[in-house]
Amino acid sequence: MEEVKVFHDRLGNTLTVWFGDPKEEFICEETGEEVILMKDRSGKVIGFEKLNFLGETRESVRVAFESIQV
User: Fold this and answer.
1) Distance in angstroms (rounded) separating the CA atoms of residues 52 and 35
2) Contact between residue 54 and residue 19 where contact means Cβ atoms under 8 Å apart
3) Residue 28 forms beta bridges with which residues?
């Protein structure tokens, strides 16, 4: 099973999600929608960061994922 890492920075108002190894990050690409894509050397997206993310509560952030077979 793959591992997904989710980090919520309340001070910086960011939500960072890694579904690849963060150590493999080679380049970042801003989408223009306050989302930054982190990519490896081959250009595969291995994570993303949502800027100006404000969670609904101070206690926790709920994140849901759905996987598909490709």
Assistant:
1) 9
2) no
3) 38
